[in-house]
Specification:
- This protein is an alpha/beta fold.
- The protein folds into 2 domains: 31 residues, no CATH class; 174 residues, 2-Layer Sandwich (Nucleotidyltransferase, domain 5).
- 41% of the residues lie in helices and 20% in strands.
- It contains 9 helices and 7 strands, in the order ααααβββαβαβααββα.
- Helix 6 links the parallel strand 4 and strand 5.
- The longest helix is centred in the C-terminal third of the chain and has 17 residues.
- It is elongated.
- The N and C termini lie far apart (87 Å).
- About 5% of the residues have low confidence.
Amino acid sequence: MTSLANPRWGAPRIHGELLKLGFELSETTVGKYMVRHRKPPSQTWRTFLANHLNDMVSSDFFVVPTVFFRVLFVFVILSHDRRRPVHVAVTEYPSAEWVAHQLLEAFPWDSAPHYLLRDRDGSYGEKFQETASWLGIREVLTAPQSPWQNAYVERLIGSIRRECLDHVIVLNEPGLRRILKSYFDYYKFAPYCLTSGGRHRRENSWFSFFVASILAYIIR
């Protein structure tokens, strides 16, 4: 009854009060028989993503090594609505100012979403946070070391690696930009088919598309 009348009291507090009244009980026993107050149910992470599907984008970095052992950073922004890539950029030095500039390029005028889902990478500095706030974007951070919470953009990065970067050798930053531009042109304009009530890309080879584009450029 004590825990019911004092919902803010924990087991140590109730245990101390009972000792004052002469009841010899252990704190473990008190905690065992305390009344459990029901908390209102909170939405799961999956429910949160589904509720804000049309108002959310996600961003992430991934690295690409070149043939000369330099490391390039690719910054990707993906719209959760229909999994549409919004922006991609390449740099060797991803400073906070550079990342903030990419956010401005991705959402000019009044096209900014309500939420931006990202991890806790150090490249998202104070300048990026100020830019997001100025655009009216609310940042949603994933838990540390939890890439599964940003699954949509992680899946896109996996597709880029499997379908594109695993089949080419990157020489430098301009070359990587051209390769990614070709891939996203394919990603955007490749034929679609209706399966399971949704739009899915057909299993066409991007590499075949890339080679055909090069041959067409050489022949002309």
